[in-house]
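[step 3/7] fold_predict: job queued, chain A
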Amino acid sequence: MYYSLKNNVVVPGEVIAQQEEFVEGEGVYIDTETGYLRSMFLGKIAIDFNNRTISVNSYKKLKLPKKNSIVLGSVSSVRENIIFVDIYGVIVLYPRPKWEFEFSSPLSGAIISNQVGVDKFNDLMDIVKPGDIILAKVINSSNPYNLSLKGPQYGVIYSMCSKCGEIMIPQNNDQLKCPKCGNVEKRKISNLATSKLLKIDMKKTILMSP
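[step 4/7] structure written:
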């Protein structure tokens, strides 16, 4: 049985417990960088003391990504074998690319090295870099979401030059060039990066970044 904690209202992203204390239930995700359990949305905490599970009962049912959803996000950090992503919303590609829905605050996502969609690479920083805006596919059904860049439509759609900050221009399948300083950088580039059909408000998207 679940027992709601009276007056214990939490907001999206709020720390509600440590991973050692409880198992994450519905409406709760693990912050992979800190190990804390955080709330996915506005609601009240509920605890199953028998199974040591903590959940958040939402005041409002939120739309969340499903397995095989296509999401747009920003790369927050790149480690040796994993890429961390802030997910902003779900994209529909057909019949033309558009937002299906956006989130009020970013969700957590991660891409492990065998899901980058490139057979040979020396460094994950040749695939994406922090700050890149990417399209990716969801390969599980819970937060934090496991993502994949396998497939030509998945990868970087927007990137800024690491030297001067100018918007980079795709040159071919794996290179971006800065029109201002001439800097060339490697990436795993989406084939929609230059598509006029993909109309995303990049300034709004970047401002959503925590």
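[step 5/7] annotate
The CA atoms of residues 97 and 197 lie 6 Å apart.
Confidence is low (pLDDT under 50) at residues 206-210.
exit 0
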